Amino acid sequence: MAIPLSGVVGGPLSGALLGLSGRLGLAGWQWLFLLEGLPAVALGFVVLGYLTDSPQKASWLSPVERTWLTQRLSEERERCRERHGLSLRQALFNGTVWQLGVLHFLCFTFGTYVLGLWLPQIIRGFSEFSDFKIGLVSAVPNLAGAVSMGSAFGHGLWAFLRHYVFKAGFRDGWAGFVIAFGNFEGTFYRYAKRHEQNQDWQPPPSEPLRREPRRNDPA
After folding, report:
1. What is the distance between the terminal CA atoms of the chain, rounded to a whole angstrom?
2. For residue 139, which of 2, 9, 3 has the smallest C-alpha distance?
3. Count of domains observed in the chain
4. Mean per-residue pLDDT over the chain, rounded
5. Is residue 190 part of a domain?
6. How far is 210 from 75, CA to CA, in rounded Å?
7. Please, which residues have CB within 8 angstroms of residue 18's CB and are 6 or more apart in sequence?
8. What are phi and psi of 63, to 5 degrees?
9. Can you give the pLDDT at residue 207?
10. Helices of type H across the chain
């Protein structure tokens, strides 16, 4: 969801930056590259020094975390090798790989380059909007993508809750509920009956304690 939301924010922001054309002798696209490109380049150097090639070299992880993460990655690679076990040639001729490639091209590549790069030019070609309005209009597909992704996430979460919590929980947990309620009912009536039997009972009067004198105490 972060990618379409970045398009929702980045479209109007880019349009506003293009409106700075002429400031300090720079064109609008130059302001756009400077103000949006330099932070990404600076963050790239930070990531290059912060993220290591492997968990063993990550100084910001504790020894226990490094050991656990290394073992977990090794187990995942071993399970992947046991489950698939495809060579490079077999992977290139595998139907699932081609399906994923087509989906990647139609969804990611098409959405990134066609909508992200050329949609503002397409809008400019059939309208007389300003740069800021073009940015707002180009943010609409990204907003629709964010809403659809949120809807898909909510649908998946509801399906999980409906099947594993409500359906499976009530199906497998009703016996425990009946047993717990039965024990509660029996315990309640047992203590209620004991209370009725002992409600007229009064404790015997207690006498004040007397302290016996010790041998060494003065008379």
Report:
1. 91
2. 9
3. 1
4. 77
5. no
6. 76
7. 28, 29, 31, 32, 131, 132, 135
8. -55, -35
9. 59
10. 2-18, 28-50, 63-83, 88-92, 95-103, 119-126, 131-160, 168-198
CA 160, CA 168: separation in Å to the nearest integer? 10
**Is the pTM here over 0.85, yes or no?**
no
Per-residue tokens: 164: 């594993």
d(CA 4, CA 66): 33
In this structure, what is the dihedral angle of CA atoms 63, 66, 67, 69, given to the nearest 10 degrees? Answer: 150
Q: Is residue 217 part of a domain?
A: no
**pLDDT score at 204:** 56
Cα separation of 164 and 52, whole Å?
39
State which residues form the domain around 15.
Answer: 2-150
User: What three-state secondary structure class fits 26?
Assistant: coil
| Rounded Cα–Cα distance for residues 146 and 141 (Å) | 9
Which position has the token pair 């290394």?
A: 70
With respect to residue 165, please indicate whether it lies within any of the assigned structural domains.
no
> Which residue, chain included where needed, has tokens 């489950």?
83
